[in-house]
Amino acid sequence: MLIAATSDIHFPKGYENFLKSIDKMIEKPDLFLLAGDIVNNGNLSEFDKFYNIIFGKFNCPIISCFGNTELPNFREDVKKRYKDIKFLEDESFKIDIKGKSVGIFGTTGSLEQATSWQKINIPDIEKIYEKRIQLTESILREMKTDFKILLMHYVPTFKTLEGENPKFYSTMGSRTYENIINNQKPNIVIHGHSHFGIKTAWLNSIPIYNVSFPVNKDIVFINTDNIKPGLTKFL
């Protein structure tokens, strides 16, 4: 299975570079995953621009979670407007690809320490994060598919944050997900949010991909047939 994935394009900022990435794309993925922060500040008109770029370029399922810049009102509007993109908010989705069942759990994720803005503007944010963690574990445990994907925006391990300022690690993700990943064993984990981290890391035999556009400078392609512990191939 060939997976394309990206995040943190932050339209309009990343418009031109993303357009170049799409124009040079020759691979035909079986699945396109979006790990959030496609646009800045929940700007629906900018998401229109993003959609117009990818329209007709991906003849495969498109699955997305939401990032921290995509606020609740925007989320509801974009879900209603783009029915051919499956948006996952702390929920799972199952699809058959090449004769195999693929289960995807999508979530914004959680932070070890909520940001100052979140503490002021989002009531009970700590409880929301705790609930997401619990839900992630329970749904992955119950998922009975040939291939399991954890798709999230915030980072699930500090291993992919190498290059970021360590004092901000706790406001970029949560290491609590490491235990979930090790126990429930999704085949791959895809996240964004980190603009200055590294592209991949491993939790035991499970690959963690940071598909943030600022890090990769391109859409990430993952051939799941080529994944081996300690060796990750990008096409």
Could you explain the architecture of this structure?
With 235 residues, the protein is of the alpha/beta class. The chain has one domain (2-226): Metallo-dependent phosphatases (Purple Acid Phosphatase, chain A, domain 2, 4-Layer Sandwich). 29% of the residues lie in helices and 23% in strands. A 6-stranded mixed sheet has the order 5-6-7-8-10-9. The chain is globular, with a radius of gyration of 16 Å. The two termini are 12 Å apart.
Question: Which helices and strands appear, and what pairs or packs with what?
Answer:
Blueprint: E1 2-6, H1 15-23, E2 31-34, H2 44-54, E3 62-64, H3 72-81, E4 85-87, E5 91-97, E6 100-107, H4 116-121, H5 125-142, E7 147-152, H6 176-184, E8 188-191, E9 200-203, E10 206-210, H7 213-216, E11 220-223
Parallel strand pairs: 1-2, 2-3, 3-4, 6-7, 7-8, 8-10
Antiparallel strand pairs: 1-11, 5-6, 9-10
